[in-house]
Design goal:
By secondary structure, this protein is α+β, with helices and mostly antiparallel strands. Helices cover 37% and strands 22% of the residues. It holds the Pfam family AIRC.
């Protein structure tokens, strides 16, 4: 994927990989077969590079340090790789820089481990310092009696171990951070990562967490990467705890699985960004160009040919889904739980995409969920409001805006109203039009439950001629904004919704312009007829 990005930027990428048929070999400018653990091979490889960067942190740091002394441009710096490839040193480094972390300590024997268990409690996370990724190198002891077996699984104390206090997290988050050669730093939107058997399985962008948590996560990630040296893209993995804390789990000094969605969902993919950073180009815009994205890892379901067959069937189903893109890594060997590719879904909301993902996987109850999600919700307290509210639906249908129409009463079905309003954004709704007569509480109550724009339509009732409804809607308290239109004028509510959506939709703006031109032509036609026929003939037609 780095080579694919480079091909669009006139950057030549040479890869060093021990496998003759590695996935990048077909796309790279050149491929040198050899181990990145072998000092002589790395030195020979470096002679051919203007900039030397890494796609894995498990490299020979001593060789990188030697190359830097010889004037080779390594990005990120060897000092950063040295810190990150030893997870205990990584924790010590970030602790010294005031980054919030789970409590941790080094262990060298069973007695020290027992004391750690007494201090931190159980379950206790035991980790290997080096060569740990995708859950490898981690073991959990649920009691003191499980300590010995957990340590044996990790290869014993000779491997180098440390323990972490169990982090009571409710979500795992991640932030891709780009750092330029000029030390400029940009953060990508915070994502949620969901793991299956300790391997990243699903990434949801943006993470469904409050804005305060997103800012805190970005601040922690920014501070962590500011403490390191060198340019490139970094992945900062985080824990969100029950009490709203953000704790740093670990950092990867390279493009990362949690950022694969950026190829389709962001203005600058993490791969392009890494290239920009290491060669000294200006960093690109990391913001999302689509409201939401889900990345689904294609993990090996079986060994060999049966596994390939399952993966290809899933890709075929994915390509039936709007906004789906499949990436196949072309690894020569299929193994269970091996990352063979990924599928990215982009669309109006994470909730809509989650339904499409489940449809792709043929999960029960989601067999046919690829229909177009409604962008506007039209709600009213009673079917007696429908003769008025139908005009909004007609305008939206005429403009090609997907719409749903529901009866939701603020007084008679308050639970349904709460459920509808609070779930609307996640279901892909972008604007809500609420019709109400009399007390007209529905628009304001809906607006208090959603961050979406709400347009209230005052409906004329049998008394007070709709003035009561109009005054109720415009008298919402500060902090609960509701737009409104004239009594019974659902047409204008529909047009206003189209204009709101048109801010980010050129096709809708064009449709609105056409509507205005058609309205003008209609009036001009009548004016010409009146001028030509005279008022008496005009009225008698």
């Amino acid at each position: 994927m780095l080579c694919q990005a480079a091909s669009k930027m006139a950057i030549k990428v040479i890869v060093l990989d021990p496998s003759e048929n590695c996935p990048a070999s077909a796309l790279a400018y050149d491929h040198m077969v050899g181990s990145f653990d072998d000092s002589a091979t790395v030195e020979e490889f470096a002679k051919r590079c203007g900039v030397l960067t890494v796609e894995t942190e498990h490299v020979d740091v001593a060789t990188l340090e030697k190359l830097e002394q010889q004037g080779i441009d390594c990005e990120p710096k060897a000092s950063t790789i040295r810190i990150i490839q030893d997870k205990y040193l990584q924790k010590v480094h970030f602790s010294r820089h005031g980054i919030p972390l789970p409590e941790f300590m080094e262990i060298n024997n069973l007695e020290e481990t027992k004391r750690a268990g007494e201090q931190y409690g159980y379950p206790l996370m035991i980790k290997g310092k080096r060569l740990a990724y995708d859950g490898r190198g981690n073991a959990v002891a649920k009691s003191e009696g499980e300590l010995s077996s957990a340590i044996d699984v990790l290869g014993g104390f000779g491997r180098g171990l440390y323990v972490e206090k169990w982090a009571p997290f409710i979500k795992e988050l991640a932030v891709i951070v780009a750092r330029g050669r000029d030390n400029s730093i940009l953060c990508y939107p915070v994502v949620e990562t969901i793991h299956k058997e300790n391997i990243c399985h699903i990434v949801k962008a943006p993470a469904d967490v409050p804005w305060r948590i997103r800012k805190l996560a970005n601040d922690v990630a920014y501070k962590a990467i500011s403490s390191l040296e060198g340019a490139g893209v970094f992945a900062v993995e985080l824990f969100l705890t029950r009490d709203g804390q953000i704790l740093l789990n670990e950092v990867a000094p390279r493009p990362h699985n949690s950022g694969h969605h950026t190829i389709e969902s962001c203005y600058t993919s993490q791969f392009e960004q890494h290239l920009r950073a290491v060669v000294g180009l200006p960093l690109g815009d990391p913001s999302m160009k689509t409201p939401a994205a889900i990345m689904y890892n294609l993990l090996g379901e079986d060994e060999g040919e049966p596994g390939f067959k399952v993966a290809h069937q899933l890709i075929a189903r994915a390509l039936e889904i709007p906004g789906a893109t499949a990436h196949w890594y072309d690894k020569p060997e299929m193994r269970r739980q091996r990352k063979m590719g990924h599928i990215t879904l982009v669309g109006p909301s994470v909730g809509v995409l989650e339904a499409r993902r489940k449809s792709m996987l043929r999960e029960e109850g989601y067999e046919n969920r690829n229909e177009v999600a409604p962008r506007v919700g039209i709600v009213m307290g009673s079917d007696s409001d429908l003769p008025v509210m139908k005009d909004a639906a007609r305008i939206l249908n005429m403009c090609g805006v997907s719409t749903e129409v529901r009866i939701v009463s603020a007084h008679r079905t308050p639970e349904l109203m709460y459920s509808y309003a609070s779930s609307a954004r996640e279901r892909g709704i972008q604007v809500i039009i609420a019709g109400a007569g009399g007390a007209a509480h529905l628009p304001g109550m809906v607006a208090s439950l959603t961050p979406l724009p709400v347009i209230g339509v005052p409906v004329r009732a049998s008394t007070l001629d709709g003035i009561d409804s109009l005054l109720s809607i415009v008298q919402m308290p500060r902090g609960v904004p509701v737009a409104t239109v004239a009594v019974n004028n659902a047409t204008n509510a529909g047009l206003l919704a189209v204009r709101m959506l048109g801010v980010g939709d050129a096709d809708l703006l064009a449709r609105m312009n056409q509507y205005q031109e058609d309205t003008r032509d209609y009036v001009l036609t009548k004016a010409e007829k009146l001028r030509k026929d005279g008022w008496e003939a005009y009225l008698n037609q």
